[in-house]
Design brief:
With 180 residues, this protein is mainly alpha-helical. It folds into 2 domains: 1-96, RNA polymerase sigma factor, region 2, helix turn helix motif (Rna Polymerase Sigma Factor, Chain: A); 100-180, Arc Repressor Mutant, subunit A, CATH 1.10.10.10. It has helices at 7-15, 22-41, 44-60, 71-89, 110-128, 131-142, 147-154, 158-178. Helix 4 crosses helix 7 (147-154). The termini are far apart.
Length: 180
């Protein structure tokens, strides 16, 4: 369990007029939200904008968070909706690949180079998935959300999410097998 006040305590402080308390929310969740948005959008810069906009929206609408004990899920939902809006406005040709991993140093061993190549391959494969499958896969396997939390974030039914994760996993495995 993390130290400091609980999410409901922080929400109560912010709603009670302590504007600085929202900084606790940002410090607690920004890294995970940024990781999620980057995987969804394929660009760290665009993801940073989406997360910043989402956090401003969350601050403005914090009173609308019906269950402060589920603040994390509520924040992921806001970021997911922001990512979906952004993706809906772009054409498929505009979707960039994940930011490439750093170029391997000549002094690196072969295993590190192989790992970098595998990460780049997985990033490209993730970018090829539909946004719904990519979102489900990233929420489950990168962010570690439960299926119930995923349902709260996406508004989808748990069986639908399980199928999306399964299909995303199959698609990713197929890409990796094709390049083996």
């Amino acid at each position: 369990m993390r130290g400091g006040p609980s999410d409901p305590e922080v929400v109560a402080r912010v709603l009670g007029g302590d504007r600085e308390a929202f900084g606790l929310v940002i410090r607690r969740y920004e890294t995970g939200l940024l990781r999620f948005a980057t995987r969804m959008l394929g660009s760290r810069d665009v993801a940073a904008d989406a997360v910043a906009e989402s956090l401003v929206r969350a601050y403005r609408h914090l009173a609308g968070c019906r269950d402060p004990s589920r603040l994390r899920t509520w924040l992921y939902r806001i970021v997911a909706n922001r990512c979906k809006s952004y993706l809906a406005r772009r054409t498929v040709a505009d979707v960039p690949l994940e930011e490439a991993p750093p170029v391997a140093d000549a002094t690196d061993n072969e295993a590190a180079l192989e790992q970098a190549e595998q990460l780049a391959l997985v990033a490209r494969a993730l970018a090829q998935l539909s946004s719904d499958k990519r979102e489900a896969f990233v929420l489950k396997h990168v962010e570690g959300l439960s299926y119930q939390e995923m349902a709260d974030v996406t508004g989808e039914r748990i069986p639908t999410l399980k199928m999306r994760v399964h299909r995303a996993r199959e698609a990713l495995l197929q890409v990796l097998e094709d390049h083996a």
